[in-house]
TrEMBL record:
Positions of transmembrane segments: 26-46, 58-79, 100-122, 142-166
All copies of domain DUF1468, residue ranges: 27-169
Hydrolase among keywords: no
Keyword vocabulary terms for this entry: Membrane, Transmembrane, Transmembrane helix
Species annotation: Microbacterium sp. A8/3-1
Name of this chain's protein: Tripartite tricarboxylate transporter TctB family protein
Length: 181
């Protein structure tokens, strides 16, 4: 559908395509909004211990509010027809095909992480996730990625699970470490 452009004389001089809401951007904005609502509802289902001033809901509430605010801003801009300009310096080949194998490896690693947390503990499962994602993205020294993942996940496990008391399962291999903290 063409929309006439009115000139100085008030007559139609040229036509341009009528503005359309880009479906992909609209779906993205609505999914962000739904995720924000889901996260906000989830915040109110978190058990807060009695007598705790700054409980475990502070950070999730902050993230939920930021997510909702961002979603509303994107949705308003999409509905107004504002689109970001394509960056000229972008080093992306628009004709390149999606590497579905890499995506499948990463999704598989996330699913494996979720399934392994209760079986082997959070830190070893996070190490597997880190290593597999690094390998899927082309790390040449994949074994080093697993070692780095293990070190980082152990530090996170001790700080958040041991010292701050968050629920990160230690697992059978690290159960003794949970008793220390």
């Amino acid at each position: 559908m063409e929309t006439p452009i009115l000139g100085v004389s008030g007559r139609a001089e040229a036509t341009r395509p009528a503005p359309r809401v880009p479906l992909g951007e609209l779906v993205f904005a609505l999914l962000m909004l739904a995720l924000g609502v889901f996260a906000l509802v989830g915040v109110f289902t978190i058990h807060v211990p009695v007598g705790v001033k700054a409980g475990p809901t502070i950070f999730p509430l902050f993230v939920s509010i930021i997510l909702l605010g961002s979603a509303v801003a994107v949705l308003v801009n999409v509905l107004r027809g504002k689109r970001a300009e394509v960056e000229e310096g972008e080093d992306i080949d628009p004709d390149a095909k999606t590497d579905w194998l890499t995506i499948a490896k990463i999704v598989g690693a996330v699913v494996a992480h979720l399934l392994l947390i209760d079986i082997i503990g959070w830190a070893p499962a996070a190490s597997v996730l880190f290593g597999v994602v690094a390998w899927a993205l082309g790390a040449t020294r994949w074994w080093l990625a697993f070692v780095i993942g293990l070190v980082v996940s152990l530090v996170i496990q001790v700080v958040f699970g041991g010292l701050m008391g968050l629920s990160l399962p230690w697992g059978p291999a690290l159960g003794w470490l949970g008793e220390v903290f």
